[in-house]
Design a protein that fits this description.
Length: about 190
Amino acid sequence: MIRLGGFDWRHAAWQGGFYPEDLPEDWRLTFYANEFDALGLAAEAWLAPSLEELAGWVKDTREGFRLYPELPARRVPDLEARLKALGPRLGATLAGEGCPPEIIALAGRFAPVWAQAAMEGLPPVAHDFVEALEPGRAPLVVLESSRVDLRAARRVMEVLGPRDGVILLRDAGTALESLQGLRTLRDLLGWQ
């Protein structure tokens, strides 16, 4: 399987194009989760909402949908409760440079932890399709839409598919067309 998605779902540019004009704002996550399989979350995107809101995100998404939140670089008092609230949908968590070891250890109790840059003991995510083919990489590619090449994506999907790979677009708000192109390719290749 190849999961596809972007970072965040609350993009003003998607209103009236991707999201129907009359779709209420509180239904957008459900709509997004029915179209895509994965969602990247910047740390501030999931550390600011209440625990009740996070639990609502789980309720608003389907069983096979997965979240990939970035871990904070600082201690957060209710981090364990937040990870637990998202637990049923966590695919993996993403550790950036400077992420404290105790946060990585805590997150590892809920889902795999993958590194956004080289970090000892953690498989690194790829930031382009060439890196995705390197041994030892996490089965996750985080791309800017300008780096989407469908020919290269096909090869990566063939490699990542058996590993339950994930492709997330960092700038999804302006890259809906690239995301939809990847989805079409994935569906044609049979990796849905």
